[in-house]
Design brief:
Length: 289
């Protein structure tokens, strides 16, 4: 059933699409602020305990809804799981956003390019070079898609929602110092450790394996904090990316950027197909239901 739900979700995203406004998590931001206003003065809030308290409410609600729907009519539980999966693929689905950016570049619409760039960055969308843009897209691909899929496969709708909410908390706390913010980062590092490496492995298999594996080995350390380094190094290696020297011809620079964006989009699509193929084999083999 997991494979069927994921296939339906991916097909729905590809052929129908979901308005990004439907993936808003403003309710969760308000919920976190409400909890913080009431619990910040307590010791338990400032650390892992605060993260557990923050996540427990929404996640227990997801479990309760699945349990109730399973008892009432099992297909309703499957539909709810599908809805949670699609909702968690965000804050915006990456592939159509890449299509828009590439289209704007091909048309030479610089104003549109400027408006679209922030979707791939936590800042104003200003990138120092093409490599930084590609690295941000790789990290986004893991957080928006592959990480969500991994935890949905592992824990169902509970896992998908856990991963998405953990990423939101980490982003909220990115410029804040304190044990709560550090715990949020630690949780994301833990949740990202395995999917980041499976994502990188998929990129290696569907791209340049030699360069990808070599770059991965160089980036890998005995630490939970190098997930993004592994993703970026392995992804760029799989692309056989080589940064161009500074060129005076703006048209040449733009065409080079378009080329690498096309290449990266193709790599991500092939990696997704590889993941789904492996999941299908596991399902047919009876390893998963």
């Amino acid at each position: 059933m997991i494979l069927i739900i994921i296939l339906i979700g991916m097909a729905f995203e590809h052929f129908v699409g979901v308005d990004d406004k439907l993936r808003r998590f403003a309710w969760f931001n308000d919920y976190v602020r409400w909890l913080e206003n009431r619990l910040a003065r307590h010791t338990v809030w400032n650390g892992a305990g605060g993260i557990i308290i923050t996540l427990s409410g929404p996640l227990l609600l997801v479990v309760l809804i699945v349990w109730i729907l399973t008892g009432l009519f099992f297909p309703l539980a499957l539909l709810f799981s599908l809805a949670v999966l699609i909702y968690s693929l965000g804050p915006g689905y990456l592939n159509p956003q890449l299509d828009e950016l590439i289209d704007a570049m091909e048309q030479g619409d610089r104003e549109r390019i400027k408006d679209l760039m922030p979707a791939f960055s936590d800042n104003d969308g200003a990138f120092q070079n093409d490599q930084e843009l590609l690295e941000n897209i790789l990290i986004d691909a893991n957080e928006r898609l592959f990480g969500v899929l991994f935890w949905f496969i592992a824990l169902g709708p509970f896992g998908a929602m856990l991963y998405r909410l953990a990423c939101i908390i980490r982003q909220q706390q990115s410029n804040i110092h304190g044990h709560y913010a550090e715990s949020a980062q630690d949780l994301c590092n833990i949740l990202n450790w395995l999917p980041a490496r499976l994502f990188t492995l998929g990129n290696a298999v569907t791209g340049n394996m030699v360069d990808a594996m070599e770059a991965w080995r160089e980036a890998e350390k005995q630490s939970l904090s190098v997930n993004d380094d592994v993703i970026c190094a392995g992804g760029l290696g799989a692309l056989s990316y080589r940064q161009q020297e500074d060129a005076a011809d703006d048209e040449f620079v733009l065409q080079d950027k378009i080329y690498w964006l096309h290449a990266l989009q193709g790599l991500l699509n092939r990696t997704l197909l590889a993941w789904l193929t492996v999941l299908g084999i596991m399902t047919l083999s009876g390893w998963m239901t």
